[in-house]
Each structure stands twice: as structure tokens, then as C-alpha cells.
From TrEMBL, chain A:
InterPro entries: Cyclin-like_sf (IPR036915), Cyclin/Ssn8 (IPR043198), Cyclin_C_2 (IPR031658), Cyclin_N (IPR006671). This is Cyclin-like domain-containing protein. GO terms for molecular function: cyclin-dependent protein serine/threonine kinase regulator activity. Residues 302-314 have a biased composition (Acidic residues). GO terms for biological process: regulation of transcription by RNA polymerase II. Residues 302-329 are annotated as: Disordered. SUPFAM superfamilies: Cyclin-like. Residues 87-185 form the Cyclin N-terminal domain. The lineage of its organism: Eukaryota, Fungi, Dikarya, Ascomycota, Saccharomycotina.
UniProtKB/TrEMBL annotation, chain B:
Its main location: nucleus. PANTHER family: CELL DIVISION PROTEIN KINASE, CYCLIN-DEPENDENT KINASE 7. InterPro entries: CDK, CDK7, Kinase-like_dom_sf, Prot_kinase_dom, Protein_kinase_ATP_BS, Ser/Thr_kinase_AS. GO terms for biological process: cell division; filamentous growth; positive regulation of transcription by RNA polymerase II. Pfam families: Pkinase. This is [RNA-polymerase]-subunit kinase. ATP binds at L13, G14, E15, G16, T17, Y18, A19, I20, V21, K36. It is found in: Nucleus. GO terms for molecular function: ATP binding; cyclin-dependent protein serine/threonine kinase activity; RNA polymerase II CTD heptapeptide repeat kinase activity. The lineage of its organism: Eukaryota, Fungi, Dikarya, Ascomycota, Saccharomycotina.
Amino acid sequence: MDTKQLTPKMHGVEEKGPHRIDNDELYRRSTQYRYWSFDEEKIEDLRIKVNKRGQEIFNNRILKLDDEIIKKFLNNEKNFKNITVNEERLIIIYYARKCKDLSNFFKFKTQVRLTAISYLFKFYLIHSIMEYYPQQIMYTCLYLSAKSENNFIGINNFSKAIPKTTPESILKFEYLILDSMRFSLMCHHSIKPLYGFYLDIQNVLIKLDFNRLYKDYLLCRDLINESIFNDIQFLFTPPQIALASLYIIDDVVCMRYLMRKFGVKRKQMIIKMNQLKNNEKEDIKIKKDIIIKEEIKDSTNDIDNDDNIDDDDGGSSNDEKSKKEKKQTPIERYEKMIEIIKACAIKMKENINPTVEEAKIISLKAHFCLDPVKYFKKISRDVTPINVNTDNTDNNSVKRENTDDDINDDIKRIKVE
Amino acid sequence: MSGIKNYSKSKKLGEGTYAIVYLGTQLSTKREVAIKEIKTEGFKDGLDMSAVREVKYLQELRHQNIIELIDVFSDTKQNLNLVLEVLPSDLEKVLRDKNIVIGGVDVKRWLLMILRGVYHCHRNGILHRDLKPNNLLMDKDGNLKIADFGLARSVDQPSEKLTSNVVTRWYRAPELLFGARLYTGAVDVWAIGTIFAEMMLRTPYLPGTDDANQLAVTIQALGTPTEEIWPGVSHLPLYNNLTVYPAPTRAELRRRFVAASEQALEALEGMLIMNPLERWTCEKVLKSGYFLEEPIP
């Protein structure tokens, strides 16, 4: 479809008439791209900043305390270590997983769950858990997401189902979350492009066994649903994530499909697929290990070096020639795409699942940071000092504490249901 | 997003169920703006769904034929404020104002602008679901912009069930009148078709008095859909005991739309095809002969 066809010529009426926007450009206009796409360093940066600010807020809270006893008490707390960037991330992931359970409990559609978790992660790129505790924020994210994704539920019914909440306690964060997200509510998830690819592959790879494709599709869905807890939503576009899932589940189908789409010549395709076969044994090993920090460059080099088929070297030498040319050849475009997908696949496999114990410890520290006075009052009734740090898991002292019984509430409720 | 300090509200322009619209100024640029203050009082479930939708979709849609959302801020009372471009008129006002002479080129130009705006929505996977003349706002230069996304929604999955209770009655597509729960952007195209007719007639084309009457008026004007032209239609929830009217012939349409060219009638018919799967898309109308023949807008 080109511009001229689509929009008839304007004779002076609209000089600055619209030009055809391609699909990439369309995505670049989305808030997901404009506000929420980063590289890894940038995310790390944001989290460090957020953590620092959280730390400052906490320090100010401490400074404001004028009660001598509290100060004395705090002086005794030599074991208290600041909440780290990683701990913040862990507890957010912990509650993101809780969010998933809660969403399932309400029987919300997939979209609601995915969006809520996305909101939660976005919120904590702006705020620290030392400012707002993720449990409450998570509830509000889920409530807001249900609205945003057209799965509305009244606040009374919503709150009733969640222990220790009131409609007010949930609604009071609605504005804060909206504001923190700069009022960008739209989330593009990779489930949708995955479905698109699933349909398109049926058209492109006609000979492909449908049962295999359908099975792949279901496995990809599961994989995508599980990979929302890492940072890929900020690092890659939804179609990239969808393709990466397919690459993990069935690399042969993924590669064949992409080669066809990019118009890679049949001869080159056969060479590539043969290379893959030769590398299969190698691949199985890699898959078993799931090497997270596998270097992309190395793996692609391996494929090139292990090139045992000496039919003709046409493919690779052609590649090198055309690299000098400005316009990329189909095989170059294909390889660039595969490189991105591989990088995404590596990130996708990053599976972080904090244990309840880990969460409890961080939760304890967070509650201390959020409200030292309240925490102190509680603790002074108890003899246990705050001896909390993640390296030294002192379960007994933690268990005597009640600050984080909310964590257990959720678990109880979900078990009951 | 900047704060309230950058804006001043002067006079109240209007009030709807969930918002009050003020005329205001963006202080940093001295630009005149419309500020839509979303009411929060009386909404026990927090921010109203219409407001959620409006913010959500307008944030994503940047197009010359869609109202521009300049900024969003929350004021001291925690009210949500949408800062929008000022659009003093709307298509309904223009069509009703008998002092305004509307020529064939105006109609074509407006239709073109509506189609472009809606096409942009559809490309973004967003259905407007409430297209009607008073949601089509106009700036001083007569540029038409689509507004009011309070009923809009995105189509996530083709199998997802939606409510058929959308679109102001006179502009409601037959699949909605029959209570279909699965529908597409074709509902917006139908609405554009009826608006196109209204622009030519300067009076609503299918003014039903209630939901049942709307269906009667629609099939009287455009024929009763049968299984033959629309497979599956008889299984839709509200399809029963219909009087069978024939579809209008081209000659009949010609008599009704006196000034319309053959190409215009073809586009009109394309947008008002009963079967939503057969109905033209925005793209097809944009590419149709109507926009290639004189007068070129």
C-alpha cells in the first residue's frame, strides 16, 4: 500500500497532508515505546536512582525522630543493612507473582493480569519500596488494569475478596499510579503478535504439520506468561518477544519462517538448516544447561566455524561482499533479526522466583524503612532486634515478627479458594 | 506531564456526565486550550471507566484528524485534567446551521478527514464505537477531528466478546442492532456511512425513535438482511420476525441523494453493506473512485 494510492492528491487544501506511516513507525508512536523502552543500563540506572531516593526518604524519616529511646534503639541496630537494588527487585517480582495468583482468583482475562504486572514494574521504576510498599500498590495496579482492559469489577467486591483492604485503601493509590506512569495505560503484550505469527506461519509454511505448530503455539503462550517477571517488556518489542518464544520452543520453525519472510534464497536456506542439524547435538547441550549469559556473538561464530558442509561456500562469502553494500540482503536482514531474537531469548530464560523466606526478610526491612516508629513500637514489645539481612537468614527471629503476615494472608486465601 | 501551575481555567464551556470542560490557557506558551476536568466525586469506584478509556486511547493516538491530547495533570483536589486542543465547532452544529452553505467538496473533504482519523484508530487496533456528528469537532479552518473516546476500546482477540450496547442509536450498525457480541471496525464504518448520508441530506439518515424502531428504519431504508447475503445473521440474538424489505436500487438511492455522484453512491453503499464482513473498510473507501474524481478536495 503506498501513500499515493491511499490518500488522493490534495490540491492545496492540505499541503501538509498525511504520509503513510509504516507499522514500525506506528509502534514508535506508542507510549510503550516512547516512555517505557530502555536498554539494560538505563533500567539499572533508574533502579539505582530510585533506590537512592528511597534511601534518602528513609534517612529523613529517621532524622525526624526525636524520641531519645528510638534513637538509642537505632544505634543498637548495627546489623541493619540498607535495602539494595536487587532486594527491591526481588520483592517486586514476589508481588508480581502474587498479582498473577490474585488475578486468576478473580478470573480476570489474561490481558488484565499482564497489564497489571506491567503497571507494577513501571511504578517501581519511578518509586522505591521504601516509599510505597508493593503489596498495596499491586492491588491497585490490578484494580486499575481491570478497568483499563475492560474487565471492570466494582471496588467493593474487589476489596471484599482481599483481606485487610478497604475500598479506600485501594483507590487511594489510583492517581499516584496513573501519575507515575505519566497516564500511559496502554500495554502491548506479546500474546497478540504471537497469535498473529501462529496464523501467518500457517500461510507461509504450508507443509508444516499443524499439530506441531499448534503445540508450539501453546508452549509459547506458557513461556510468554512466565516471562513477564523479568525485564523483557522494557527491552524488546512484543513481536520480538513472540518470535523469541518460538525460537526457544521450536527454533527450526522460527528460522524457516523468518527466512521465508525475509526472502532468503532457497539455496542459502538449505545451507542454514543443515548447519542447524549439524549443530543439533551441540544445541541440546546448550539447552540443557540454559546458559544465561551465553554470548550472542560467540554462538553465531560457532555456527559459521562449524560449517562442515563443503557444498559451496557461496552463502557466507556472498554475505561478506554484500556487507559493504548499503542495502542489506535478505540473509543479512534475517541474521540481524535472529541475533535480536537470540538476545531476547536469553533474557526470556531469566527466571526469577523469590522464595517466601527471601520475601519475608525484605518485607521486614521495608516495613522498618516505611515506618520506623510503628516498627519500633512493635519490636519493643518483642525482644527480637532487627537482625535482618538477606545473607544471614535468621528464620526464627523473622517468624516471631508479625509485620509481614500480609504475605501469609495471600497464601492462605489462595489455598482456601 | 506538567502540573496544574502551567494552566489557568477561564470559563466553563460545557458539562457532561463525567466531566466539565473549561476554556483555559497553557501559561508557558500562551496557547488557548480546552481543559476537561474529570469529576471524581460521586464515582465510588474511583476514576470513571470513560475517563480511563479516553486517557488511554488519546495518549496513543497522534493524528491530524484526531483531537490532540496536549497534557494530563491532576489538580489539588486530585481531579484528572485532560488538556485538549480547542475545537470551537462540530459537524452537528454545522449541519444544523441553515445559514451555512455546504457544497459537494465540503462533504467530500469532511468524509476524507473522518475516514483518515478512523483509519488511524483501526490501524492501532482501536474501535471508536461512538461516531456521530457531534463527536466530530472542527477547528477554525474547518479541519475535522474525532473526539470523545469514552466508549472506545481495543480489540485484543478476535474471539473476545464485546457489548453490543454501543454507538448512539441513529449510527448503530445492523450487527449491533441484532445484538452481536463479536464485531469489528465495521461498526465504525457503518457509522461513517450514516454520517456521510447525513452530510448530504443535512438531516439524520436513519432516525429511529427507539431500539426496535431503529432496526425497522434501518431495514426499510437498506433492505432486510437474509442468510443469503449475510450467512449467520438469523442466529443473532435479536433477529426475529422481520418484515422483508428489498434493498434499495441505485435509482432509488439516486432519488434520495440528488446531488451525489455515482462514485459517491458507490462509497455510500459500500459503507452501508449489511454484512459486516462484506462492508468496506476505511482503507477501501479511501482508495475508492469517489476520492479520485472531481471535485478533488
